[in-house]
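Allow me, if you will, to draw on your knowledge of protein folds for a short while. I have a record of one protein: its chain in single-letter code and its fold written as discrete structure tokens. I should value your view on which stretches of the chain appear to form regular backbone elements. Thank you for your consideration; the sequence and its tokens are set out here:
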Amino acid sequence: MRPSIDAPMSNDARLDFCRRLAADAGRLAHGAFGRAALLPDKGRHDEVTAMDREVERVVREAISRAFAHDAILGEEDGASVDVERAEFVWIIDPIDGTANYARGIAHYCVSIGVVRDGVPVAGALHDPSHDRLYWAARGAGAWLDEGGAAPRRLAVSAVDRLTAATIECGWSLRRPQADYLALVERMLTAGCAIRRAGSGALGLADVAAGRTEGYAELHINSWDCAAGLLLVAEAGGRINDFFPGGGLLAGNPVLATNAALAEPLAALAGVPLRPDA
């Protein structure tokens, strides 16, 4: 699958390159789907395969050839330079949802985001299991190429009742288990349905596509959410201001919601939203 070269913003070099690269990387990863052995853990429930590392290597090399002066931050190999001082930073998760991927569960993706001076400006997610390429550019909307069809503009859900909302609550060992359980309890008590599917990037894409009303996680890394946050914002949703306060390198809480439930979900998650602009 290739994105349409006639789609909006195709003349933007970084966006066009980002979405093509994500699609190519997704196809590469999918070649070992369900067959890639988990390597010795980086940490508890922080899993990696040889394909994670191979995809990141290929993506990093491609970016370096095309945009030699841009910085790169990847989950597996870290930062190429002082990314906090660079104008453009490419943020890579070679396989988001590695535990699913290695076990043959078709819920994982390649995520590539581009940040300029700390602001997300372009991003793409490729979900090869379902032939879906999500992409967005600041001020130009969020889009989905699916099954070779023409790009479709994404819009968040219009659901305006917590008792009709589905919220994905991501889990991280970087926060106490009690905090995660308290978050889930607050959402359930408010009447929300809860899910957790094992890919923060695709969880954000689901909000952008209107499949769910929100995604909340008390700590997430930038490579898991750089592209997905832009998707939600460009699809008409609300997000928190993730990158200030060391979010690029150290991570932060994340919240992404539809517009109708933004304020109550922010209160339940305990994560302030970025001013809607």
